[in-house]
Fold this protein.
Amino acid sequence: MQNPDIARLFDEVADLLEIQSQNPFRVRAYRNAARVVRDFPRPLQEEVRRSADLTEIPGIGEDLAEKIAAIVTTGELPLHKELVAKLPSGLLDLLRIPGLGPKRVKTLYTKLKVKSAPDLEKALATGKVRTLAGFGPKMEEKIRAGLGAALHVERRLLLPEAEVHARALVEHLRAGGGLTNLEVAGSYRRRKESIGDLDILVTTKRPKAAIERFAAYPDVAEILSRGDTRVTVRLRGGLQVDLRVVEPAAYGAALMYFTGSKAHNIELRQIAQDKKYKLNEYGVYRAARRIAGATEQEVYAKLGLDWIPPELREARGEIALARAHHLPTLVTLDEIQGDLQMHTTESDGEASLEQMVEACRARGYAYCAITDHSKRVTMALGLDSKRLRAQWKTIDAWNAIAAAKTIDAVDACQANGGCFTENDTNAFLFFQVLGPGMSPQGPA
């Protein structure tokens, strides 16, 4: 199981403990465990397989190390199964609804006997939900709007979680060799906020070998279907993944089709029909003859369009822009100059001021803003006026050093006849954003 799957189990344990009014310190321990696992930079399943000492990871003690090893080995956590057995299974589904945390789910369960999404739907219809303390009309509307998330059987992953799985699968497939093209399509390629499943497309001269390697992926829990050019599996964390082997002459058309979105594809097919073509996942056809399909660029060009970045393929005017050659240029990571929302260990962050600054420098940033919490937002470690002033002085000192480096770099360049560019200085500006109700002199 990948780190997001392990973290999700720990998060669910914390939710179940909180719903059952267990010790809050125990709840917090599992929340912290989920955070540590989710943020760990290497796959924990690999650490377990090589018998690494997980207790060397900050925040992981012997008990959690044993639980992680059990999850990786069996795909399950006995404590999770034990807690689930004590409550109606539908309660966990309610936690997918925006605004419904463990405390509110517990209230719905104890006060209205709500055990599932259908029960909640009935309670909303009768107006009982708004009568509960801590709910009200606005919360009722928010719950009603998000109810579909609990009624939907599919469990969606956040993009960063899906990315962990996608990268591991791609590495596994590439290690087998023999692949000419490989791409993860679908909503993942369009970089949507959440992902329901993964669609992987490959071209290869050895389809059978690619299918066999994919089916042998260590995290596969179940093979749902298998053929000569396609296999569908469910991973141990519950994610469904399809692998399709396509012919090179159709790769671009297949990649376009399986990337979507559905609405975008419908508009493209209409354009093809207007030109007396047929467009599908195998290519662009004039009568029975394929006239494009090897690359996406080729398919778009045959339709009279510029190539459209996957992130824009949502049928929101991008096709008209592509026809008029006016597609916007997307921002890339290389163009990000700084970060304006950063917390340090002075409040609820996980890294010190120095670590944050060095990480920003490593990314090539020109500036960052430290936005630690103040006491005003009831953070246990929020900055009071004394600690705020101390942090302010530290930041001023760091900026003074950066300014001195800049002056030295400029002087050196001028002495050499002028070689200065902005990136030559290695200077870095960072500053402090005050918490709510705070000023440099203390609480406002």
